[in-house]
Design goal:
Length: 193
Amino acid sequence: MPKRTKNTSEHQNVSPKGPKKHDSHTISEEERDLFNKAMENCRPPVKESSSINPSFHNKMIKDNLTDHSLLNPVTGDSVIHFEKDGVQPRQLQRLRQGKLPIDTTLDLHGLRTESARKALMHLLQTAVNRNWRCVHIIHGKAVLSNNPYPILKNHVNNWLRQHPDVLAFHSCPPSLGGNGAVLVLVKDRLNVI
């Protein structure tokens, strides 16, 4: 059996191809400058957190809500409803019938569009923070308006469909305002339906 010899320092930097001239992990100053210039306006990605400031969260949602509500308008007498995938049929039935306990009511009568949007965003953020599951929103039917389509009802219908914390909504039974109001099923903090 041949004897093993220890590598000496003079043999460590020598390879069959000769001494190493360039380490593949080092970059030239020119390459570094080009890289830094390319990355100049880049920011690291924002890490999602459950501790997002509520006012920032509301502004982010508000800025992403579109006002396409009059592309397919509904009338004052129309039933409006929406549900996300995964909501249990029994929950939807109880929502439609007005049998879920209502945690709070928001009346938007008389508000302008932007004020109504702010009030709605605030209500939904409060509902999530306080773990309210069902909220009652009165938007009205604009019976006294000259407009054939109720503005607030159409906006509420549109905004609720886009809001990430809304699982479902349905026009109310007559005892809670009928087609002039909606019951909204809100996502809880644990995202459990």
